[in-house]
Amino acid sequence: DKLLFLWSFTVSIFGIGGLLGSSGSRYLAVKFGKKKCLLCNNVLMIVAASIMGCSKISQSFEMILIGRFMCGVSAGLCVPLHHQYVGEISPRKLRGFANSTSSFFWTLGKAIGQISGQRELLGSQALWPLLMASCGLPALVQLFTLPFLPESPPYLLMQKGDQEGCKKAIRQLWGEGQHQAEIDDIMKEKATMKNTKILSVLELVKEPAFRWQLYMIVTLTATIQLCGINAV
Asked: Name one GO biological process term (predicted).
């Protein structure tokens, strides 16, 4: 019973960390910007991967629990931040395509993880620490490549009020040309946001106007696990 509890807790603690990470993603994104948050998030994932990778040498299952929790926090932060950042740095014509690639690579990552976890590959008794530490590899790649990209133009203009920085970021991302229409759109969004109240999670649940939208999202999220996407 004790072993079963530890297995269950090891699996579920990832989701607990994810809940905490996603809950704080909005505040961190507004405070520090998407790019800085993603960079710091990579460091968190690398630390988590290192802890889990060293758990066998240290003979400590507690390190697996800690690493899984940190991975969950990192994933909870990464998913909303990644979608926002990719959408905001993409040109309008490619924005829908860029956002859809996130879901594709998310599913591809799950498939690669499941394949790598087979006993014939990294799921053996000798190599499973490498499997658990492998989540740090994509984070390491992004940690070295993301600094070459600018901060999100909407963040620079809406949160920082840096119009020149916004124009510079747009030129770096989309090339030289007339981008005044995109800047005007961001300014309109900023003006709209001033008159819009940002609801907390509790206020959102209590708001009658969003009740049916909330029902639809909960139903969709719950039933998507039954559609076979992971198997595909």
From this structure: D-glucose import
Domain ranges for the chain: 1-149, 197-231
Superfamily of domain 1-149: MFS general substrate transporter like domains (1.20.1250.20)
Question: In terms of C-beta density within 10 A (0-12 exposed, 13-18 middle, 19 or more buried), how is residue 216 classed?
Answer: exposed
Residue with tokens 């879901």: 103
In this structure, of 57-61, 100-104, 217-221, the range with the lowest mean pLDDT score is 100-104
- The DSSP H or E segment spanning 82 is helix 61-89
Question: Rounded to two decimals, what is the model's pTM?
Answer: 0.80
Q: Are 160 and 29 in contact (CB under 8 A)?
A: no
The answer to whether residues 55 and 132 touch, using CB atoms and an 8 Å cutoff, is yes
